[in-house]
Each structure stands twice: as structure tokens, then as C-alpha cells.
């Protein structure tokens, strides 16, 4: 029998998925009414819309004037693939991995591109590798925020200013929610579906002058798919970063990204977006301190994500279960919350340890998180009582 009373207050918005993420507060389909539909994306009107998104993104993020920013295909994954296939091979590579997406980039580098001079620096879920091992005479690849482990790098202080290689950051759950020192980054990628709640499908690629120099001075030995080509005749394709996308984008997605940026501007820009995410993390931290049922998956408070926040269940009865039983109970907790219409899609990532993953980015209200945590405690107790009856 569940000894915890069923909560009376429900989150106003039950969407806590880590991707695609919740739309910004107040969003309705009406914000897409002015989308450029039925027109070529290469028309002046279409290119103006694309460039408006890039210009607003540049301004809000505070990108240096000589950095380039472009819309590319296939979400953050496409942007990272484009960067790695176009830039790697000139030097040895150090690649950091502490969760599933970072491990995916290891597979790309070692098994797909088949680079020989690769050092893989890894850590288990919940921890961060020793960043001090990075050799900046080499190219360095890492995820700024481990979306499936809830572990982020605490800052960019560990990145050398006098580096010889390129620093390539998968920053898809970090951009617009964390303070990224752009002078430390040569390549960054992200997607609209994270933090700002934009529609999926497209990625964003940011390049420093050092990355552009690499593109013009080095040609990879492998065939280059059209979607990845950032040069033409050995010269950097500037037009891609001036609104002329390689393939046809969805102008509905462009319009939605534009709406998210305008909302971000209206609440105070990057500083306010970061503050909203940090406030959400604080709300969840207070819950962890008071609940006997959960702990952060990230062990070090300095590395805990403020966007994709991951938890493990630590109730004594739960820790006595085997791995399969823990996975079953965790899925049941998520299913109970889904059935109640309280929280959708908060089960941990399929490759991660059994647990819960709650999106806490800027589009989420702290009051909804506060209500959700009470429901999670209730659902854990209900799952316990159901499991006890079964066994």
C-alpha cells in the first residue's frame, strides 16, 4: 500500500522530455502564422528569415565577429558529423567520453573515419574524465553537457589558450543555458530542439577562424558527402554561413526557432536564460536533499547539468534489486507519471543506468518542477507496493 498521499498539485506543463524539449511558456501554433511557406528558401524572403535566426543567435550568444554560424542538416548529430568528417585527420585526436553521445563520437572517429592516432579518455556515467589529460597539440573533442548522464564540464578553464589543435565541442544541451567562453572553442554544434524548445531536424554549426584555416589548408583523404562539404575548390564556402543552406530547410522550423529567440530576448537574453536553468537545478537540488528516494547521477555538484538532470533511485528496497528489476521499477515509475498526465518521457536514456531524466532548461517553469518532484516520490512508493505484491 502506498503510504505517501497522492499530490494535489499538478505541473501546468507535463512535458519534461530531454529532446525534443518543452516549448517556451505561452507558445501556440499561432506563432508560426508568418512562416515562409510555399516559397524557395533561397528567395530573398527565405534567406532573410534564415539569416535573422543566425543574427539573433549570434547576438544572444555573444559570438566574436569573426566566428561563422550556419544552419545545417540533421540536428546536432549532423552538425557534429559534418565537423568531424571535414576537419579531422590533420593531427592526432583526444576525445573525451562519459556518456552515450560522447561514446558515439568515439565510434565515428575510431571506427568510421578509422583514424589511427586517437586517445580515448573515458569515465563512467556520473563522473567526468580527467580533463587535465587533454593534449592541446592535438585536436580535442568533447561534449560540453552529457545529455544522458547529467554531467557537464564545469567551465572552459582547462582549455589552453595557446592550443595548436582544434577544440570541437558538442554543445547541444549547453548552448543558451551555460556560459561558454567562445575564445576557447574552435567548433561548436547544437540544435534548436534543446534549451529553446525549437522543432527538431536542423543543426547549427559554429566555426572559429582557426577552424576555417584548417578547412582551407587540409583536405581529408576520404570521400566527402555533399551534406558535409564546407569548401569549394579548396576555399571556405562562405555562402553556407550567409543563409544559403546546403539542402532545403523546413521554414516552419526556422520560424519556430525565430520565435524562441524572440522570447529569449524578451525575458532578458542569455543571462536570464541561464538563470532560469540554474533556478530549475536549485529546485531539483532541494528535492534531492529532502527525499530519501533519489540522488543525482552526477557525483560532483560542480559538474551537475542544469538542463538534462539525471537521477538514480536510492531507496533501500530499490538498491537490493538486481539490474533487471531496477530497470523494470524505474520504467514503471515513468509509466505511472505518464498515465497520470503529470510527466512525459522522463525515463533515463536507454544506454544509461536505470534512472530518471528531467529536462530543466529555460523553457521549464520552476513551479512545475516543484510539483513534479512530489509526484515522483509518490510514484516511487506506488511502484514499490506493486512490485512487492508481484514478488
What does this molecule look like?
- The protein is α/β, with parallel strands linked by helices.
- The protein folds into two domains: 33-266, Type I PLP-dependent aspartate aminotransferase-like (Major domain) (Aspartate Aminotransferase, domain 2, 3-Layer(aba) Sandwich), CATH 3.40.640; 270-390, Aspartate Aminotransferase, domain 1.
- The chain contains nine helices and 14 strands.
- The protein has helices spanning 44-61, 75-87, 100-112, 209-217, 251-266, 270-290, 316-319, 323-339, 366-390; strands at residues 68-73, 93-97, 118-122, 139-143, 145-146, 151-152, 167-170, 187-191, 202-207, 231-232, 235-236, 294-296, 308-313, 356-359.
- The strands form four sheets. A seven-stranded mixed sheet has the order 1-9-8-7-4-2-3, with helices on both faces. A three-stranded antiparallel sheet has the order 12-13-14, with helices on one face. Strands 5-6 form a two-stranded antiparallel ribbon.
- Strand 2 (93-97), helix 3 (100-112) and strand 3 form a beta-alpha-beta unit.
- Helix 6 runs parallel beside helix 9 (366-390).
- The longest helix is centred in the last third of the chain and has 25 residues, at 366-390.
- The radius of gyration is 22 Å and the shape is globular.
- 47% of the residues are buried.
- The model has no long low-confidence stretch (mean pLDDT 96).
